[in-house]
Write a structure and sequence with these properties.
The structure is a single chain. By secondary structure, this protein is mainly α. The chain has one domain. Helix 4 packs antiparallel against helix 12.
Length: about 500
């Protein structure tokens, strides 16, 4: 019993450490700028603790169930050497990992409430999860065939830009945010490990050049599929509900209360996790025809995943969402927008520097690059890119500019840099753009954008409130590639005789 408790304590402290940068930035602004305790501050603090408990239980459940079973399945499939089987497993892992992603659940629920039900939360999550599943299958095939990643990324983002031209304004920000929330502390290490492990096991493949890139594809393709979904949903523009301009603050009129509500919510979480359970059981028993090594342990793990997800969602409603909206409401009361920009930059930089998925990918890149890349430098470049991105995204909301021009301009810049950057950095740079958004930062940044759009006259919450996560994904790619281009040019000059 001491072992599991020790593991839970470690996961809880890990979750609190992820929350610490947010707490420090918010507390600093409250103490130095507002000089008052925010209204409902105790409930927000309690919500943050519940978020930490939920994340800890969720991760503990993954360690007991999905991770060990998934690794065993991957090893057994790799030994069989069947490409169709590997692709099918890649799809199943991608789908099941993302459909229960806490950050995606949070964004989907926000979209449903703000669009007055026009966007269905479960449909949105299934579209994103299917997109990631297809991407994982395609990415596995790319590694096996040894195709260069940059051609996939250039073709993909050209498609993203073209679809954005035709997508309704109501869906663009949400679509880009949906791509950004598919990768976090759970999915990134799993996806990255699959790509690197596959590249390492195939003769003639380079782990740095061929192993990275799956995360980037997992971010890109949902942007396309969600925009196509939006074109269908908003085809009849004349019937836009006025309720889409409202931000639901959690009014649960008509819903059961108390113990019954909690039981119903837990069953809802079971439905969310069910695809992962069915995937594992299907491949374990129907494909491999082997029984689970520790069925009781795996069952307990899945139970902890469900309870952790429930606690996480409760904590969001009490803590992170209110903090984001409260900070937006307080910051716009000043005569200058400077403090809004400063808060956006500070929260982007601080949370990214503490992002565990970024630390993990930075370490993997340092090992795979054999001295070409330093993990700490990567973290600084990515954090700086996220800070710039969120600040530019906040400026877009304040100015009321169309997100189309910013996003299209950003990805055109990325495409140009992709053609100029050294090949060893391309896949890694795109992956780093996908590890900047965790289950902790996404709800806060989403709430900040929605809060700003709801407080500024003339802004639409649905059109202007989403999109900050997209900016946080674009600009790390720009900073990392720009740094690699600069370093290579400087090295070339040193080697060239004067």
């Amino acid at each position: 019993m001491a072992g599991p408790l020790r593991d839970f304590a470690h996961a809880f402290l890990h979750a609190l450490r992820n929350l610490l940068p947010i707490i420090l930035v918010v507390a600093g602004f409250q103490a130095l700028l507002f000089r008052e305790w925010p209204e409902g501050g105790l409930a927000m603090a309690g919500g943050l603790l519940i978020v930490a408990v939920g994340v800890a239980l969720f991760l503990q459940g993954l360690e007991l169930s999905i991770f060990p079973v998934g690794k065993r399945l991957a090893n057994q499939f790799a030994r069989r050497g069947s490409v169709p089987l590997l692709m099918a497993f890649g799809f199943a892992i991608g789908f099941s990992a993302v459909v229960a992603e806490p950050a995606l659940i949070a964004v989907a629920e926000q979209a449903r409430e703000i669009s007055a039900g026009r966007i269905d939360a479960l449909t949105l999550r299934l579209i994103v999860a299917c997109s990631v599943g297809l991407v994982m299958a395609l990415g596995v095939l790319r590694v096996i065939l040894g195709h260069p990643i940059h051609w996939y990324m250039i073709a993909g983002y050209v498609t993203v830009v073209l679809v954005t031209f035709f997508a309704p304004a109501e869906i663009v920000g949400l679509a880009y945010d949906s791509g950004g929330v598919t990768t976090n502390i759970v999915t990134v290490p799993l996806i990255a490990a699959l790509g690197i492990g596959l590249a390492s096991s195939i003769r003639g493949r380079n782990p740095l050049i061929d192993g990275f890139g799956l995360v980037a594809l997992a971010v890109m393709v949902p942007m396309i599929s969600v925009q196509l979904y939006g074109i269908l949903v908003y085809a009849d523009a004349g019937n836009l509900a006025s309720g889409a301009e409202l931000v639901s603050t959690g009014g649960d009129t008509g819903k059961p209360a108390g113990l019954l509500a909690m039981i119903l919510d837990l069953f809802s979480m079971l439905r969310d996790v069910l695809p992962i359970i069915l995937t594992v059981l299907f491949f374990q028993y129907a494909v491999l025809r082997h029984s689970l090594a520790s069925p009781l342990k795996v069952g307990v793990g899945f139970g902890l995943v469900i309870i952790g997800l429930y606690a996480f969602v409760v904590g969001l409603k009490l803590g992170l969402f209110p903090i984001g909206r409260s900070m937006a409401e307080q910051l716009i009361t000043f005569d200058t927008w400077l403090w809004v920009y400063l808060f956006a930059f500070a929260i982007g930089f601080a949370t990214t520097m503490a992002e565990p998925a970024l630390i993990a990918v930075g370490q993997q890149a340092e090992e795979a690059a054999a001295g070409k890349i330093q993990g700490n430098v990567i973290r600084l470049l990515v954090a700086f890119g996220v800070a710039i991105g969120i600040t530019i995204g906040v400026h877009r909301i304040i100015s009321g500019d169309s997100i189309h021009y910013y996003i299209i301009g950003g990805y055109l810049l990325v495409i140009v840099l992709t053609t100029l950057a050294p090949r060893y950095i391309v896949a890694l740079a795109f992956d780093l753009g996908g590890v900047t958004t965790s289950e902790v930062t996404v709800p806060l940044v989403t709430a900040l954008g929605i809060g700003l759009a709801g407080q500024i006259d003339g802004r639409s919450v649905m059109i202007d409130g989403f999109g900050l996560i997209a900016f946080a994904s674009i600009f790390p790619i720009v900073t990392v590639m720009s740094y690699a281009i600069l370093i290579e040019r400087m090295a070339h000059r040193r080697e060239t005789p004067q």
